[in-house]
Every structure is written in structure tokens, then in C-alpha cells.
Amino acid sequence: MASTFTGPQVYQENFDSQIYLDTYYGAVNGVFIKDGYLNFILKKLHKAFTSGGVKGDLLIDIGPGPCIYQELSACEAFKEITAADFTDRNREYLEKWRRNEPGLFDWTASLKFVCELEGRSGKIAEKEDKLRKTLKRVVPCDVTKSNPLHPLVLPKADCVLTVGCLECACKDEEAYGKVIKNLSSLLKVGGHLIIGSILESTIFRCGKSQFSLINLSEQFLRKVVTDTGFVIEDLEVLCREFDKPMFDICDHTSGIFILAKKVKDV
Ligand SMILES: C[S@@+](CC[C@H](N)C(=O)[O-])C[C@H]1O[C@@H](n2cnc3c(N)ncnc32)[C@H](O)[C@@H]1O
């Protein structure tokens, strides 16, 4: 499918947080529920933050949109989490979640799944509470800036986590390489970069809006991460079952999870 790059201002104007959550994470028909991507990422994150040994003081979650699922395991391994997204609406949605306002997206299925992975079935309320306490701030971010959190300067983080954002924010592979460098600048040497992404996609839809995606391959991601001073510790690809109606909403062929350790500044 042909697509023209939809930059961050298009997200600011057209990205509807609630429609996105219902379309991609809705209990029965959500795209990432049906193709298994959500549970794949939750399992990989659980492993990274337990046996993978990823832990520390500060984790920065880049481009969470209105989502909190990707922080459910991290909140047990980090003293604090900063969530950073481009759009006002997504940040406001996350702030509402922090304030436990009524009428927001129901994450019970993900909470239950992660509690079970942790051997703590039924501890959903405790898990929500823990994440609300650990998610200390929600800040603006543009990954294309050399300091993506500008004007905020944070201490170097022990982990930068980004799921489902960079394929949206980059118009081509060259831009992607620069963005990985920008994210690396937020990390300590010895810290970890975690990327969750979808492969070989060109567009996704959210309500009446369509957004471009960079067509990523596993080979490119391996190279760009390694060339930017990281050593890959875990990488797994999940192939997507072909499902035509869903393919029209988002045309990825697979999902990928990468855990990489920063070994040098480049
Ligand atoms: C498809 S949503 C992904 C939401 C969520 N991470 C998930 O896993 O479903 C893409 C997110 O990237 C953010 N984004 C797009 N361009 C960005 C940029 N230049 N800097 C930071 N965030 C950006 C959007 O605001 C949006 O929240």
C-alpha cells in the first residue's frame, strides 16, 4: 500500500486515544488481541524484567500513546517510570489513568495475564496500584529531537522502552537510525533499550484517519541497533496469521521484540 509520511502534527490533530485502544486492544476484536501480539509483548517484557535482569532506578517509556500495558512488568523492576509521548490527548489520557478516573479503557485482561505470569493471580488491584505509584510523570516528547524530552533533562536512565512508536515516528531508515541514537542519549552505558514493533507494514487506521508506518525488517533492526552501540540480548519475531479484514486496518506481517544492552556511546 502506498502511503505518505504522517508526521507528529498529524498525530496531534487526528489520533484519537479511545478509538485507538478499542480498535487495537478491544477485548474481542482488537487487532493486537486477535493476532497474539499483545500477549507476545507482555510475555517478553515479563521475561526481560525478571530473568532478563533488566532493573534499576529510572525507566523512560517512549511513545506509549494512551497505553499502560507495556509498563505492567516494568513497575516491579524500576523505582520510577517516566512516560513520554508527543500528543496532548495521549498524555492527558495517561494522566486520567493515573488519577483513576472512571470511563477509561479496561485493562483487566492484561493485568490478569501479567499477574498470572508473575505467579500472583488475583492481585490485579495491587498491580494497578503499584503502577500508579511507579509512573511518576507523563511528559512531552519528540523522538526526532537530539534530546527527545527537550526541554526536560532527566538523569540517564537504566532502561528506555518503546513499543509501537518508532515505526510511526520515522519516515525512512535514515530517520530511524537517528532516532535510535537520540534514544541512546537518554540511557546509561550498561542500560537497556527495549523495542516492540511491527514488521513490513505501511499503514494503520484509527477511526477515519490513516497513519503511515515505516516498512521495517528484522535485518534492518538488527543492524541499526548494533551499529548504534548496542549488543542484542534477546530478539524474537512473532508471525501474524493472515486475516484479511484486520489486514486492512493494519498491514503488518509480524511483530518483533528486541532487548539490547548499551555498550558504548556512538
Ligand atoms: C500507534 S501509537 C502506539 C501506542 C502504543 N505505544 C501501543 O503500543 O499501542 C504511536 C504513538 O507514537 C507517538 N508518536 C508519533 N510520532 C512521535 C514522535 N515524533 N515523538 C514521540 N512520539 C511520537 C504518537 O503520539 C502515538 O502515541
Number of domains: 1
Question: Biggest sheet, strands in spatial order?
Answer: 3-2-1-4-5-9-8
| Beta-strand residue fraction | 25-35%
Terminal CA distance: 35 Å
Query: What is the string of SSEs from the N terminus onward?
Result: HHHHEHEHHHEEHHEEEHEHE
Describe this structure in words.
S-adenosyl-L-methionine binds at residues 20, 25, 69, 85, 90, 142-143. Belongs to the class I-like SAM-binding methyltransferase superfamily. NNMT/PNMT/TEMT family. GO terms for molecular function: N-methyltransferase activity; S-adenosylmethionine-dependent methyltransferase activity. The chain has a seven-stranded mixed β-sheet, with helices on both faces. The chain has a two-stranded antiparallel ribbon with strand order 6-7. The termini are far apart. It is built from twelve helices and nine strands. Helix content is 38%, strand content 26%. The protein has 266 residues and is an alpha/beta fold. The protein has one domain: Rossmann fold (3-Layer(aba) Sandwich). It is globular and about 45 Å long. The structure holds S-adenosylmethionine. S-adenosylmethionine binds at residues 8, 11, 15, 24, 63-65, 67, 85-87, 90, 141-144, 163-165, 168-169.
